[in-house]
Amino acid sequence: MTDLGHFALLLTIPLAAFGILASVFGQIRHRPEFIVAAHRALFATAGTLTLAMVALTGAFLLRDFSVSFVAGHSSAQMPWYYTFAALWGGQEGSLLLWVWVQSLYGTFSILATRRKLPELAGTASAIFCLIILFFSVTLAFAGNPFARLFPVPTDGGGLNPLLQHPLMVIHPPMLYAGLIGTSVPFAFAMAALVHRRMDPLWIHLSRKWALFCWICLTTGVVLGGFWAYVELGWGGYWAWDPVENASFMPWLTLTAYFHSTMVQERRRLLAGWNIVLIILTYALTLFGTFLTRSGVISSVHSFALSNIGPFFLSFVSVLSVASFMLLIVQRPKMRGPVEEQIEHPVSRESSMLINNLFLLSSAFVVFWGTIFPVVTEAIRGTKISVGAPFFNTALGPVGLVLLGLMGIAQMIPWRKTSAGRFSRNVGIPLLAGAAAGAGAWMFKPLVPFALGVGFSGFVVAGLVWELIVSTRARRRLHGEPPLDAAIGVVTRQRRRVGGFVSHVGSAVLALGIMGSFFNTEEEKHLKPGADMQVKNYSIRFERLDRDHGPNYFAYRGVLAVQRDGAPLGAMSPERRIYPNQNEPTTEVALRQFPSEDLYVVLADYDKAGEWVVLKVFVKPLVSLVWLGWLILVSGALWAFTGRSLAVSAREPGAGAA
Question: Which of 34, 406, 568, 654 has its CA 20 to 30 A from that of 646?
Answer without folding.
Answer: 406
